[in-house]
Amino acid sequence: MNRAGRADYVKQLCPEDEVVPSEKFLIIRSYPDFLETRLTKLNSLYPGQDLDKFSDVYAVPNVDGIDPKSKGQRTITGLWTFQDNSRDSLAEVMQR
Fold first, then answer.
1. pTM of this prediction?
2. Domain contains 1
């Protein structure tokens, strides 16, 4: 395993991210430009406030209807999955 630091293991999921199963991999498409724009707008609406990380202000209305091209640059994280028939697959769990 290639361990380059904490970033290898910590990945926050955002409402605009896409989780896509692909055979033995689970693909997470993230949109850092979209996220930065969204958080900048929230900071201007709530200056100096420490918002709860589970606050409804972070919700993205009609998130499934947003065209991925309009979200800007994307990054892709691929997670290798090991299929075990005795439990739900990683793809099934992540898509819940």
1. 0.73
2. no
